[in-house]
């Protein structure tokens, strides 16, 4: 950790040193102290009242009040959303309003808004009823008018028949009908209203069955949907008039209307009264419309006033709730009139915490200051890394596997370079890399605007990893230049090819006719390799060997970091009986293979490395013959094989016995241990905690070490083979890119047809974006993630810590109330 001096701090290599602190705060300054510490955001409080339920805690009432205020604010937000308003995005200013005043103000606004809504709903319901009534008056009036017209016409026809001769077609009972006493005629009743159109057929059937057909129903369709008074929604309806005879039939009809949600309205037969009622209803509708508009304007003005202050009130309510929630975690001392807090904080934050407590004491006019003291504990502290917007995404990649143990070597530092580099090895194409870079630059340039907006899940995830994608794109351009691939097309960017035809008759499809006519191509793969018969064997050999070199280098880095972990924690056993045999075993086999690859590249030898490595195990004493790359190779192989064989029992046997010996020595001298504890004794204590103070299970420790040894020996082989995915995915990406270029773009170009060319370009762009820039990017990302989590981090990284989660107002914006 670089503290001061000319060098910058190295906070990412290991987590920040933490300390357990105790704060003794007077009650009168407690609220302000916690508020200032929340603004600082560097203290993680421990819950000292874990045995109490939330309702038994000191500030349960205040939290309930804050919850009620949050409910009112949610109500305001719902009302603003319905009205099409959004909370003001003006910069937040410091408001001098306390909890009591805010609670009172929110209560008054809620009461007023509820009253306005209730009146508005009532008026709207009345307005909808009047509209329906108007429709009933019109449509039912048409029924009665047409019925009266037909009755008049029928009466005239009967009179005309009576005046003329009686024909055989005249009704036999006509004279009897006409001779009935009007006082004895049956008087029909009727019910009018509106019924939802979707229920109209069922409504008619039920009426017919309930009254056994003793009703007459007329319906008229209303062209436009009308507002239902009860639900407040637009519904398609029909106007109906039901004619009946008798009170029992009337009772049945009324019940059926209620069951079907049919709204009934009074109606009169008198045409004059109908016109009068229609005029009155139209006048009332006009008056109600004006009243409703005034009410809506008043409500909108109120909601606009709320929207200006909404964000400030919401933030204040969240802050207050979080402060009282934190105060409930503190121990309440009635006799001393103070609150006792315990929590974790970084060592560098001591002065800032003390300054915040002093400010709180001064601002609250407290007579007694707060007490700050550091506690000594054997409890494992939380892990805290100081990250910025660039490094945070890389740290999240590591934390997704497991949070680092306290002060453990952090792989996040190396991930910043190794992760995008391994991705680029699989994705190497500088054309695709430029496309990826342009896409991520859009997010980086507009990050201030986008960071304040609500994005979709996928877009938000991409935006959060914008700097990771930028590094991946830059490294892809770099490896693409090495591979000399631009959408699978090679270019002579760094000079002319070193090869040319021996004579004009040689074919471009083979390297047999090519000779080296100038110096080696200065950077990357010579473009002459592409399109030749030996392109695939050459690139396969190159990428496969390169994958092994990269894999062995990264695994060695992981083992070296295990040394620094062991040295930092003072564990000499892990250095001598874990780090040393592991580094010897890995490099005796695969380090030697890497050396052979480099020597073969440098000397241009034709040696078969498969044969060398296989017979190094099967017959180490045989002569190498034409596979010998350098003098003394046979002797070196025998020494390395012997070291690899020795490293396995070296890893397995000594450590369990030495741990048992240490345990026995430690417990023999336990009665004579010094009273004071030092940092060294703390480390020893922490180291032996995992094996228990009471008993030492030797068999358990030995089995654990056996599993660890077998896992490393087999993992050395499988992990090295796993790095061959770099070669496989690079080959797949290159071949897919080549297929899209040759079989889509060039094929379309060969038809000499503008329409086919346009279609070919569109298909090429869609295939490139969909397959190579989206699916291949995701595939290479996941494979790079696996190589870091499994092949690299399992060499040294325990990842069994827990994150530092401080009380901070800055984190409240992402939380729900």
UniProtKB/TrEMBL annotation:
Molecular function GO terms recorded: ATPase binding; proton-transporting ATPase activity, rotational mechanism
Transmembrane residue ranges: 421-445, 466-483, 546-564, 576-599, 635-653, 754-775
Bilayer topology: Multi-pass membrane protein
Localisation per UniProt entry: Membrane
One Gene Ontology term, aspect cellular component: vacuolar proton-transporting V-type ATPase, V0 domain
GO biological process, one term: vacuolar acidification
Alphabetized UniProt keyword annotations: Hydrogen ion transport, Ion transport, Membrane, Transmembrane, Transmembrane helix, Transport
Biological role stated in the UniProt entry: Essential component of the vacuolar proton pump (V-ATPase), a multimeric enzyme that catalyzes the translocation of protons across the membranes. Required for assembly and activity of the V-ATPase.
Annotated family: Belongs to the V-ATPase 116 kDa subunit family.
Name assigned to this protein: V-type proton ATPase subunit a
Organism of this sequence: Nelumbo nucifera (Sacred lotus)
């Amino acid at each position: 950790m670089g503290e001061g001096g000319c060098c910058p701090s190295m906070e990412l290599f290991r987590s920040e040193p933490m300390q357990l602190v105790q704060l003794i705060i007077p009650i009168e300054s407690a609220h302000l102290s916690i508020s200032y510490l929340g603004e600082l955001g560097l203290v993680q409080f421990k819950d000292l009242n874990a045995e109490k339920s939330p309702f038994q805690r000191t500030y349960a009432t205040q939290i309930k009040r804050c919850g009620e205020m949050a409910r009112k604010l949610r109500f305001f937000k719902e009302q603003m959303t319905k009205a099409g308003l959004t909370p003001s995005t003006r910069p937040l200013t410091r408001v001098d309003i306390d909890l009591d005043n805010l609670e009172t103000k929110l209560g008054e606004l809620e009461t007023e808004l509820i009253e306005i809504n209730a009146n508005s709903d009532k008026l709207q319901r009345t307005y909808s009823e009047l509209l329906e009534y108007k429709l009933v008056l019109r449509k039912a009036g048409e029924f009665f008018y047409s019925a009266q017209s037909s009755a008049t016409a029928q009466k005239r026809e009967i009179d005309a028949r009576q005046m003329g001769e009686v024909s055989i077609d005249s009704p036999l009972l006509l004279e009897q009908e006409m001779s009935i006493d009007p006082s004895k005629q049956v008087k029909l009743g009727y019910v009018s209203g509106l019924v939802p159109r979707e229920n109209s057929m069922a409504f008619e059937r039920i009426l017919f069955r309930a009254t056994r057909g003793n009703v007459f129903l007329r319906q008229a369709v209303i062209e436009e949907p009308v507002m239902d008074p009860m639900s407040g929604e637009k519904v398609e309806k029909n106007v109906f008039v039901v004619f009946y005879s008798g009170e029992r039939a009337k009772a049945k009809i009324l019940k059926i209307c209620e069951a079907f949600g049919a709204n009934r309205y009074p109606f009169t037969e008198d045409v004059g009264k109908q016109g009068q009622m229609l005029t009155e209803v139209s006048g009332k509708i006009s008056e109600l419309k004006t009243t409703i508009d005034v009410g809506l304007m008043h409500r909108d003005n109120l909601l606009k006033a709320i929207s200006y202050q909404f964000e400030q009130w919401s933030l204040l309510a969240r802050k207050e709730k979080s402060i009282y929630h934190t105060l409930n975690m503190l121990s309440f001392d009635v006799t001393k009139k103070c609150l006792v807090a315990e929590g974790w904080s970084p060592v560098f934050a001591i002065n800032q915490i003390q300054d915040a407590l002093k400010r709180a004491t001064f601002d609250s006019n407290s007579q007694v200051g707060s007490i700050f003291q550091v506690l000594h504990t054997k409890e494992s502290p939380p892990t805290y890394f100081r990250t910025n917007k660039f490094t945070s995404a890389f740290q999240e990649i590591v934390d997704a596997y497991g949070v680092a143990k306290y002060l453990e070597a952090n792989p996040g530092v190396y991930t910043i370079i190794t992760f995008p580099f391994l991705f680029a090895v699989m994705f190497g194409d500088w054309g695709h890399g430029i496309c990826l870079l342009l896409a991520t630059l859009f997010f980086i340039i507009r990050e201030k605007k986008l960071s304040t907006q609500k994005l979709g899940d996928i877009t938000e995830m991409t935006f959060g990893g914008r700097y990771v994608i930028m590094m991946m794109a830059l490294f892809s351009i770099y490896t693409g230049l090495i591979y000399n691939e631009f959408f699978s097309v090679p270019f002579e960017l760094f000079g002319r090819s070193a090869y040319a035809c021996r004579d004009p008759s040689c074919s471009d499809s083979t390297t047999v006719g090519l000779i080296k006519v100038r110096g080696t191509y200065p950077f990357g793969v010579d473009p002459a390799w592409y399109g030749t018969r030996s392109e695939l064997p050459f690139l396969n050999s190159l990428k496969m060997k390169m994958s092994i070199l990269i894999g062995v280098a990264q695994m060695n880095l992981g083992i070296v970091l295990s040394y620094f972990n062991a040295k930092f924690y003072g564990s000499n056993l892990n250095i001598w009986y874990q780090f040393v045999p592991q580094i010897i075993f890995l490099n005796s086999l695969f380090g030697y293979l890497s050396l052979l690859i480099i020597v073969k590249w440098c000397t241009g030898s034709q040696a078969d490395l498969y044969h060398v490595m296989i017979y190094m195990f099967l017959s180490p004493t045989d002569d190498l013959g034409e596979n010998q790359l350098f003098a003394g190779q046979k002797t070196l192989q025998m020494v390395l094989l012997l070291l690899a064989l020795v490293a396995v029992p070296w890893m397995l046997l000594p450590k369990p016995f030495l741990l048992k010996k240490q345990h026995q020595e430690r417990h023999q001298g336990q009665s004579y241990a010094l009273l004071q504890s030092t940092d060294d004794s703390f480390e020893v204590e922490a180291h032996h905690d995992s094996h228990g103070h009471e008993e030492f299970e030797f068999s358990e420790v030995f089995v654990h070490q056996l599993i660890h040894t077998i896992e490393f020996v087999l993992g050395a082989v499988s992990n090295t083979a796993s790095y061959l995915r770099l070669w496989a995915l690079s080959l797949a990406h290159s071949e897919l890119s080549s297929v899209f270029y040759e079989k889509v773009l060039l094929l379309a170009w060969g038809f000499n047809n503008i329409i086919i060319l346009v279609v070919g370009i569109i298909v090429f762009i869609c295939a490139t974006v969909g397959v190579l820039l989206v699916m291949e990017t995701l595939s290479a990302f996941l494979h790079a993630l696996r190589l870091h989590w499994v092949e690299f981090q399992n060499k040294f990284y325990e990842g069994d810590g827990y994150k530092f989660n401080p009380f901070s107002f800055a984190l409240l914006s992402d939380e729900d109330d």
